[in-house]
Amino acid sequence: MLYLCPTESGLQASSNTSTILQSTVVSSNLEMRAWTRQRRGAARASLELSIIAKPADPEPSSGDVLIRVSHVALQFSSESLFKLLPVLPLASPPVPELEFSGTIVAAGNATDADVRDTGTRVIAFCTIGDMSLGRGALAEYVRVPGGNATRLPEDADMAAMAGVLGSGSTALKMLRVGGVRAGSRVLVNGASGSVGSVLVQLCKRRGVHVVAVASGGNEEMVRGLGADEFIDYRKHEPLLPDHLASTYGGRPFDFVLDCVGLQALYTNSPSYLKPNGAVINIGSMEGVGATLWNWTMNTWCPTYLGGIPRRYIMFPTPPTKDDALVLVKMVEEGELRVAVDSVFQMGDAIQAYERVATRRAKGRVVIKVQ
């Protein structure tokens, strides 16, 4: 079962066609529209809707596929990276984003059979290397290896499925790395977000007791995903760790699954996390620089120098086709619901990024490309 969550203003999708979209017209079938990053800075200052060369059709001997993009799901870390990473002066302006849904329009003969036929609906992903070379997903057409694409059912919701792979792969890896199993007690911080909303469902599917942390306005949604207990972090700011210690000190967690990136959750974790437990963090709310510093200190600082006597785990989470097959099957069988916060038109990508930057999205923020 798939569902769309409305934005806080009650709008599911942007209804305005931006001026830049109206004035950006593709004049050749060798060209396409794409958002490109022209300079370092926030999305509003750095991104432009451009006309660039359309990727060539795959050669007959190739294992690549050319996909007409339907929807692109935005990464929660994109805005931070836009502000941090420079644009190389002699390179083509890079196209951002990694994961998307679309339709196969051409494929090489060496492509996997499940995604070789023209018209096949798929979810797919670009790699970080692709994006660094300018070949991201926020464009009308994307060419990727066939192994990066996974077939979808004909009735799939293309907006919802665009965002299942990145968040789903991350959630699956958090459970695998930690060894979360039936009977575990976990705290999920950021339970209403893109990863957190999947994580709650996967935990419940494994028979895990879930205490979910999110803002009070999202309680109904999070409980609907299966959370056993709910904490409104706004009622306890900035003393959430104190509340956790007083409430759960006598029944500590096996794992703290932090989808936000709150260092205080780890610093104070001995008060509510079992000695053999772990904090698994995939968030960077406090900034990329602070996150890297915290990872270094949390991972390597010995306890006799002030290190915290609990495990701290961070890891890269590139998506894989194996994960995609698992996630698509779970959605098909009604075992996983995909939360979409809002859908924006192609010309309104700046507003979409600003929605992500609020950190209040209930699920994925998606751009409808065409």
Automatic annotation (TrEMBL):
It holds the Pfam family ADH_zinc_N_2. Residues 42-367 form the Enoyl reductase (ER) domain. This is Enoyl reductase (ER) domain-containing protein. It comes from Rachicladosporium monterosium.
